[in-house]
Write a structure and sequence with these properties.
Pfam families: Penicil_amidase (PF01804). Belongs to the peptidase S45 family. Keywords: Hydrolase, Plasmid, Zymogen. Residues 854-886 are annotated as: Disordered. There is one protein chain. Helix content is 32%, strand content 21%. It is of the alpha+beta class. It has a domain at 588-752: Aminohydrolase, alpha-helical knob region (Penicillin amidase (Acylase) alpha subunit, N-terminal domain, Orthogonal Bundle). It has a 10-stranded mixed β-sheet. It is globular, with a radius of gyration of 27 Å.
Amino acid sequence: MKRRTFLSSTGSFVGAGLLSTGIASATGDDPLTSVEVRTDEHNVSHLYSDDLYDLVFANGYVQARDRLFEMDVLRHVGYGNSAEVIGEAQLQSDIEVRRDLYDKEEITRQYENASEQTQRLLEAFADGVNRKMVEMGATAQLPGEFTALTHAPEPWKPEDSIAVLSYMIGRFGVGGGMELDNARTLARLKRSFEDDREAYEAFGDLNWLRIRDDHYTSIPEEDLTVDGGEDALPYDDVPDEQLRYVDAALGAQPWGIEEEFSLDEWLSRDAKGVMEGFKFGSNALIVDGEHTETGKPMLGGGPQMGYFKPPVIHQVGLHGAGFDVTGVGVVGTPGVIIGRTPKFAWTVTSGRDDQIDTIAVDLHPDDKHRYKWYDEWHEMTTETVKHRASIPASIVNGDPDVRIVEQEVARIEEDGAVMPVVAWNPDERIAWCQRTTTRYEELEGAFMWATLGQRNDLAEFKDQLSEFPFTFNFHYVDEEDIAFIHTGKVPDRNESLDHRLPAPGAAHEWRGMQVGLGLGTHYTNPSQGYVVNWNNGPCAGWRAGDKPLNWGSIHRAELLDQYTQQALKDGPLSLKDVEEIIDSVSIHDAAASYTVPTLIEAGQNSDDRRLQSMAAELEAWKQTNYKWHGENARYDSGGMAIWEETRRELQSLVFSDELGEQTPSLTFEPPQARHAADHGNAEQDIVLVDAVAGRTTHTWFEDVEERDLSTAGRKRRQSATVREALRRAGTTLEERYGSADPADWQLDVRQSPFRSLGGSTQTSIDMINRATYNQAIAMGEGLDSSKHVLVPSNTGHLSFGEVLSTRISGDEPARLTEQLEEYVNFDYIPHPYTREQVERLAVEKRTLQTAKTSLNDPIQPSGTLPDSVKQGIVGKIQTDGNESEG
């Protein structure tokens, strides 16, 4: 383990003077009730009460015990004011949250408009959090990060949970919104080609709207095919007005931000700042009883949500008041979103439906806040927001002048929809806004999901999701059935438009809506007897959406299917077989198999001996099915280095003349919080593989200026390009390793670094493509066949003294990584689901009284940070695990 930053987004540890202790008192207006809390050796608590308020109160209490600082960070991220707490590196996140999501007044209205029961549950959770905050404050045991940041946490409010879930599900539980980026790609292609029609055809090789015929779908085609409803238009059918907005896209810039403040990837909906690396991505395997040794269904896999320390999900068991469920919930919110009951189990992967439309409007020549809608001028609503960065964090990061960034938030309101303005072209007087199908539905949707543990069977489970609007794949098993349920909320769009591109305001319309089970993308007990999913398409015919390269001809799900089929050839599966399938896809490259054979062929057919040797080394790696294996800190095959370097060269040789600066870069070293970077996803190889196979419209291996469209000419050019990429890679690798023998070109074992959400040390593990939370469950087989693991631990609490000790010595409490060893060894901890099992595993039992705490002011942290310690910590700014002087 390496020492690292205090908060990874700030790149620094902020030390300052301390605030005084403040203690709030508990009220005794209501008779005391209680919850039984049983906690196991891994700090996973199971809560027992027949009263729903008490149960959710205890949910908030134990979550605050384990994750209070993380909860506080997430609520500020959700409100879009996190820079005020953890520094200027959060400014981009805050700007995007305030642009795309909600202000405090909108969040309050969502709470006020919620059902009485939803309000009561949010209040109960908040009451439990505040009770624990009071206890911590009274004993000077608030998380030490509050003292270090001179930040006194405010009482938790019901609205705080809405802020968290709005960010988590509202930003990452929807797909789409890529139209402006797509328009910029097409505009650049038009500059590369003399013929606009040819540029449009090349654009079609990158983005296809409907699932490709050869794409692997989770539901077999013979079981289900649907009509996705959207196809790419022929060039001549694209409206001239839509193409006009394409040309303007190159001049697009962020709306409402001063030019001197630079936004990175401001059109993407990826997490930024402290949450960078977070996503909803996952793999899953469910198998029916006819294909298992026990005769009952099994489940393996889980959500890939990034490597955070502590994770952004929290293990808990809820028992009573209609619940009997154990699993994980989202930090800052109540409930369980993935887990099991005595009757069924489920896991979730990302659905990736297109639920956001980007709309282009013309602006008034004299007033940028007036826009044309159906030939009439309308007025935007605007608000000025001032983002104030934490002064101590800004100073430590070496930019004391960064204090306030001013943002104008603008909204277009039409047809009952509120649409944030995201960009504009001031010269062309055009603006772009975005309409989302799920706006203001986050709270209701989140509670549909978080209360799945109250259901009793498949019928009730599906009924609960019948109108679930967010885009996910639910994988369900009970003792009889398996089911795959793809959900979302997708509009029926105007067929006269190309929906990869921004829609003109005058032509945009939603003619209907498909929601939840209404999408028709669900199936029970498929004919093949199992389901695998790794964020791939649900079924044949469904829409791929506007995201480039989404659900194309190749996909990493094929690797998961490959290992499943291999295991089934040997007979019915044991739970160990299911575990080993998930393990295998975690340490075998998901992308290399699609391009390495082409490289081998090119090397073998070359007269260049170095290329022949490189081909032999690639062949040896191929025989391992592209396994990541190494001893003494290096991978044992040079094939991996050859493939990486050759793919980089091919990316430039094949695509740069058409795409220029938009040529996608390849990332093979996992960034912080990401699992396996481009080793874990085949998406970046789709167009290259299609071009090799002759499935593209544009001949990508040909220079734009020098075209030979004959079949023989294309093959010659393709072979020559691949050989040239191999030569360049060979030259680079020979120089890098100081050896002409490709067997010596052994990469250092890739590391997957965790992002610390607090004062913990840097943790890194050997690169692995395993889910953040894993389950392995054989239904009806007892505790030995019910397992799960959450990396690195279920607890993230550090006292102030532990923060100081960790900063000085580099050592931290073992509880912060107590499930890490199981995780890296592909092992699990018990996943109890009955009271008898919980009692057997519990190492602590307590009775929690649920009297509401009167807490109106922030809890003041206490402690002392010596100047010598402060200077020693502040003097080292560490970024991504690498120390540098600051």
